[in-house]
Amino acid sequence: MRRLGTAAAAAALLLAACASGTVDTTTSAPVPAPTTTTPAPTTTVEALPYLDASLSIEERVDDLLGRMTLAEKIAQMTLVEKNSIAPSDLGNLGIGGLLSGGGGAPSTNTAEGWAEMVRDFQERTLGSRLAIPLLYGIDAVHGHNNVPGAVIFPHNIGLGAANDPDLMERIGRITALEVLATNIHWNYAPAVSVPLDIRWGRTYEGYSQDTAIVSELATAYLRGMQRGDLSDPTTILGTPKHFVGDGGTVWGTATTNGYWIDQGVTEADEETLRAIHLPPYLELIDAGAMSIMASYSSWGGMKMHAQRYLLTDVLKGELGFEGFVVSDWEAIDQITDDYHEAVVTAINAGIDMNMVPRDYRTFIDDLTSAVEAGDVPMERIDDAVRRILAVKFSLGLFEQPFGDEALLAEVGSDAHRAVAREAVAKSLVLLEDDDDLLPLSPDEERIWVAGGAADDLGIQMGGWSISWQGGMGARTEGTTILEAIEGAVSPGTVVTFDRSGRFDGIAEDESPLCITVVGELPYAEGAGDDGSPELLAGDVALLASMDDVCADLVVIILSGRPLLLDGLESGWEALIAAWLPGTEGDGVADVLFGAVPFTGTLSYEWPRSIDQVPFDPSNPSGDPRYPMGHGLTHP
Ligand code: GLC
Q1: Could you tell me if the CB of 101 is within 6 A of ligand 1?
Q2: Among 57, 80, 325, 453, which is disulfide-ready with 517 (CB 3.0 to 4.6 Å)?
Q3: Does position 25 have pLDDT exceeding 60, yes or no?
């Protein structure tokens, strides 16, 4: 059902406010008296200049900025998490942005429930004095992953192994459509991290340890989301993140939340920072990025959120970035314990919109007093608000503040899932197959499948899935690897599943073909920081027991990073890295049984030991277990 979401809606709301006298027309620039005293719902309202879509974005920004009070300007710089907002403040203050943090679901956690929640927030915001539309943001980092029923794609580490820009563009397109179905226009993706230390819990959010692969895939994904023209109503705003050097932090330098490396210190010199971590931002700005998120990490002795040199001189000056810089969640708070000082420092450094995310009134009060005291120049405020308004005008939000609920019918559609299935198949990397065991025949007499991860959608999806940290079990619609195997074999093939691998009561004299799926349990961000990423002890024991009973053993690893395997009794005949494939397990069966060939190649170096970590692109370790680019292919 389409909702009234045209300029008429905003203008009628605004003119109604004028007519009812609730609009203070004596502020900075007089709002012309309404042409009618009782604004009928009409499409021919005499739009105020900033509501006139025939004017240039610059003209519209100039007109609107000239009408705004300081309070309204600072409200535009305020990004609040949706559970913390007093709904009346949306209309009273004219808050610039809301977000759902990881999960951040409505009370009715369906795509329809999301659409209704965001529509309500937007309608309230359009009731503000100047009816500046809200920008609602979410982490749709591998599909619209917060929403049950949405298709969930492989995480970026798998897409890096697929290394297919055309596929990335299609994934970006589908993500945009499923996000727009829920009235959301802003996606905190892609991460353009170059994760050099696989001990980092965010390794899987990076495409590769090769900067060029990161740039190419992220640009294609952004192109899919933004289509080179943000005024296209089927586009959403992407957000390359986290600027800059988030993937280059050093183990043991983290100081928040008990993390080890996440949000830590990037110790690279400027030349290295510019060579490894900066290039994706150049590419993405050229590709039209209009929002960039700053990194929690530190460089040059200070938090990135305080880095005026990098945020303003380099990003906005040297690189010519004309969009707005958004902070990360409560990130400015880490600058200093004195919150007022943190606000002053961050805004003066170049943060344009602050993801507060909770106590927005304190942020607003502190920034207001800082401007009034001259600690934050009005020019800085105007620059930040200009950037934010220019993006909102570019997105066409004043004309179409809502998404398109007609797209709800496409959320999780077979067509979307087919693309995810293709992505899964292309992301799998065949690491070992000494006896050319693969592909398997779908006519095998019997197949034993072991490992809890074989039948667990939550493990398959990893973090950032339905909830921030993800979780085990059937949390949304999808196909597990076991279900995919069962669906791929012939009717005469007997598939037996035993998560423990004991297969009690089955004749000992059988010498079955076995598939065992092992893997990491879901995590996100620093919760996944791990000093020695390796198989769980239970999985090690499982593999040993399977080796005893299986004639041939295929092992599939579900993980957010390369795991340390050296020293394991590698009783397997074939070994596959499946990363975190998401909801479409059929893509695993497609390559297992030869419907499509293995084509994935490692976009990360796979180390033998932690001594080979972090990866140094300028000086690869020389003797990894599997080098970057490794991946066996079969005809
Ligand atoms: C998180 C992440 C960032 C995410 C933001 C909003 O802490 O660092 O990637 O976009 O908060 O959820």
Answers
A1: yes
A2: 453
A3: no
